[in-house]
Design the sequence.
């Protein structure tokens, strides 16, 4: 199935929306709540994304005394990383698996670190990749090294279970650190749940102790907001209100507000959210290092192409191990629209303004990646005939109501049977 997305009849987009809850915060809160001494407090506004629901089911439907300890987390990468650590310190034997793509997403760095701390984790198929057999037990903890240049989720997974280790944890990060805001998010949430966490230079130290259980309300998702910033920028005239976003957010992707100011979108914080309005101020070229906000990269690639703003984007190395190889996916789908991208060996993506002949009726392939669908959908605004998106259901991974919200803003979606 494809969706053909066509732009609103009214060129000025006016809409007020309640964005989905933050997936990043929801997933961390679920783990911290499960690790707490009395995990009975209510979590308000939990994300309804596939990733969060998979994690929630694993924690609630397969407790330690469950006879069924075979956990299938689908395509939920965060759940795979967080649950590998969680089950490593939970007594019992566990099997953790996922989709075929998940079986090709590396996890060796995390497994090696956990095993060095006393865990017993084995690979059931390909070395270094899920599925995993985990013999859970209370970990000794101590000191361990981990590369800071791989997924920050490995680091967060280790940090969250660290207070339950007998000797706590001293985690020494090697090399350049990517996605640092996600690590800071984890630490801030751990502290709210009562953990003692110190961070000096490249070393994180967590004392042994217990988590307290607290009620928690999850804020809206700044990553989801990025697609509405894109719509505002590409429409050229918009007045969009997004509820549930906070100026002093814990989320690293809140950087989207400052970045889009360079692309002609003004952000006003209203107390209950943000108001987006377009301006005439746009940069002529955009250079940015996405090392701290890799999930925003696809949005900015698509927007800059649509606005015909040449760009030079670095810090994209983690995009190679996401739901798909996002760098190769961006190159392939942009080319369909007539924009040839170049990529250097250090995973820097560039577009110099060059054009080529687009496909007459392009269909954007989504590669089982929610962000490919949502990043490219706003480009329907610059195409009179709209833009076709293949397998649009992938948005359920983080923003299940995305297509419904587009309709509220005046976009039209037409189901077509042809798929790729």
Sequence:
């Amino acid at each position: 199935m494809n969706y053909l997305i066509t732009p609103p009849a009214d060129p000025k987009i006016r809409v007020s929306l309640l964005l989905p809850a933050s997936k990043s915060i929801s997933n961390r809160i679920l783990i911290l709540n499960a690790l707490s001494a009395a995990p009975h407090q209510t979590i308000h506004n939990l994300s309804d994304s596939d990733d969060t629901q998979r994690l929630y089911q694993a924690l609630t439907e397969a407790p330690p005394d469950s006879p069924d300890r075979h956990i299938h987390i689908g395509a939920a990468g965060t759940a795979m990383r967080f649950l590998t650590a969680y089950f490593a310190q939970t007594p019992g034997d566990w099997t953790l698996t996922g989709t075929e793509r998940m079986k090709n997403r590396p996890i060796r760095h995390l497994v090696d670190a956990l095993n060095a701390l006393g865990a017993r984790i084995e690979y059931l198929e390909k070395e270094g990749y899920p599925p995993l057999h985990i013999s859970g037990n209370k970990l000794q903890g101590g000191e361990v090294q981990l590369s800071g240049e791989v997924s920050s989720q490995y680091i967060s997974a280790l940090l969250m279970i660290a207070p339950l280790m007998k000797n706590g944890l001293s985690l020494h990060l090697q090399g350049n650190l990517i996605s640092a805001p996600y690590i800071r998010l984890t630490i801030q949430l751990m502290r709210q749940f009562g953990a003692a966490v110190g961070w000096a230079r490249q070393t994180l130290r967590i004392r042994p102790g217990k988590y307290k259980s607290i009620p928690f309300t999850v804020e809206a998702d700044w990553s989801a907001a990025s697609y509405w910033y894109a719509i505002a920028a590409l429409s050229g005239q918009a007045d969009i209100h997004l509820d549930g976003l906070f100026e002093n957010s814990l989320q690293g992707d809140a950087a989207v507000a400052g970045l889009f100011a360079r692309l002609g979108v003004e952000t006003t914080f209203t107390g209950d959210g943000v108001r987006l309005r377009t301006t005439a101020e746009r940069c002529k070229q955009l250079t940015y290092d996405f090392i701290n906000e890799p999930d925003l990269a696809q949005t900015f690639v698509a927007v800059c192409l649509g606005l015909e703003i040449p760009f030079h984007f670095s810090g994209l190395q983690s995009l190679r191990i996401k739901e798909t190889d996002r760098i190769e996916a961006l190159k392939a789908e942009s080319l369909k629209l007539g924009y040839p991208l170049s990529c250097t060996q250090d995973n820097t993506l560039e577009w110099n303004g060059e054009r080529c002949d687009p496909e007459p009726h392009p269909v954007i392939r989504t590669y089982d990646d929610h962000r490919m669908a949502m990043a490219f959908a706003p480009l329907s605004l610059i195409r009179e005939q709209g833009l076709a998106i293949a397998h649009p259901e992938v948005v359920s991974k983080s923003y299940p109501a995305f297509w419904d919200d587009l309709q509220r803003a005046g976009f039209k979606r037409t189901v077509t049977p042809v798929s790729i």
